Structures are given as C-alpha cells and as structure tokens.
Amino acid sequence: MFDDFLVRAGFAGVGLAFATGPLGSFVVWRRMAYFGDATAHAAILGVALALIFSVPVTLGTLAVALAMALVVSGLATRGHAMDATLGVLSHSALALGLVAISFVPGVRVDLSAFLFGDILAVGRQDLLVIWGGAAVVVGLLVWRWAPLLTATMSEDLAVASGIDPRRERLVLTLALAIVVAVALKVIGTLLIAAMLIIPAAAARGFSRTPEAMAVSAVGIGAASALAGLGASYLVDTPAGPSIVTAAAVIFAITAAVTRR
C-alpha cells in the first residue's frame, strides 16, 4: 500500500493535521500568527546549515526553528515591539538561509521544494518523522493542556494558580519548532503558518469548547490535505499550495455558514 506515492502523501497530510490542529488553536487564541510565520521562515536557514554540516535536514531545521522561537519568545518578555521585531527576524532569517544555500559547494538544491513543499515525494522514512513529530506535539499539548489554557486566558490567573506562564510558553515554542521541522517537506516554509492558522480559524466559528475547536481543526486540516491532494492529482496543480487553497475554501464556507 505504501508503494503508492499518493497514499503516502495522504498519510503525511493527515499526520501533519494531527499536529497543526491543536497547536494552531493555541496560535489563534494567543494571536501568535506572525510568531509562527517567523519560526517557519527560519527553517530555510536550518536547511542551509544542515547541508553545510552534512546533518539531516530535519535536525537542522528543528535546531534553527527552536532557536528562532526561543529568541522571539525572549524578546517578547522584554517589552520589544513585536510586530517590527518579528518582521526583521522573519525576513532576515529567510534571506540569510537563501544566501547561505547558494554558497554550499557541490550541492544543487531545489528551493521550491523547501519553500512550497514536496508532499508527493514523501517516503516511508519521512512518514515516520512526520507521524513521530506529530505524536510528540500532541503528547506535549495533552500533557500541559489545562495549564496552557489557563496561561492563554490570563497570565495573572496562571500565576495565582501556581502555573509558570514562561514554562507554558516554552512548551508551545518547542511544539511549534517540531511542527516546522516535520512540515517542511509537506507544505514548505512559506505555507506552514497557513496550515497552523486556517484550520483553527475555520473551526473557531462553530466550536463551543477549546477541546472541540482543537479536534475540529484536526479534521479540517486532514480534509484540506486530502482535498488538496485530490485537486492536485486531477488538475495538475502544486500539491502544497493546493492543500492551503482547500483549507481557505473550507474557512470561507464555515465563515459564511456561522455568520447566519
């Protein structure tokens, strides 16, 4: 069964949805959309460093994404103007990564695969990485679900309840870095933030509880992946952008329905 590239791509998209659904809900609740975008853009620098030092791309991406997330998180606690800071870090990391890749000797890199993903080229080992990363992310969020929700609602309430908001922020930072690392091959660095935000935003309109929103976001993400792959196969469009387009269509439909 796994010899079929389209089946592997479907499993990869669904696996990614299990991670982006609940994590994307926290991104929406905490208004961290630009934070996720900056972390995703840093992934290209991780690719360059992985090629330079001959280490797995996933490992290099994870290290740089985690470093970027920690830097941004640290700056946020020091009162920096986050919109400007995130803009500088996001685009600087992306540009630096693209420049660094051009200096890697003897290596020809298809940048479009890293920028927009290459889900149709996912292999069995990639599936293990994607589903393993998704399991870690889901495990982290389930483990810290109640404290994360409390810290998201009010940091003062969290402190009064004996919860350290910085620790919960670190959990989200780690989860975000893992998602960026495993999503790079599926939808690419430029589209990762979209898959974090759009399914969660679509689920928000009709979900009555945080748990329902997280589960609905998983379902919408999985449906978007399968619908995008189907459209890509039928009309020969790029798979990664097709997945995000399918998610956007679902968001538009849910937004129109829930406004009535």
Describe the protein in words.
With 260 residues, this protein is mainly α. Helix content is 80%, strand content 0%. It contains 13 helices and no strands. The chain has helices at 5-29, 33-41, 43-52, 57-76, 82-102, 111-116, 124-143, 145-153, 155-160, 165-187, 192-204, 210-235, 239-258. The protein is globular, with a radius of gyration of 18 Å. The chain starts with a helix and ends with a helix.
The run of helices and strands is HHHHHHHHHHHHH
Number of strands: 0
The Rg value, from CA coordinates, equals 18 Å
Tell me about the largest β-sheet.
none
Distance between the termini: 43 Å
- Unreliable spans are none
Q: Counting H and I runs of at least 4 residues, what is the number of helices?
A: 13
Mean pLDDT: 86
Task: Please bin the fraction of helical residues.
Answer: over 70%
Overall shape: it is globular
User: How much of the polypeptide forms β-strand, as a percent range?
Assistant: under 5%
Q: Structural class of the secondary elements?
A: mainly alpha
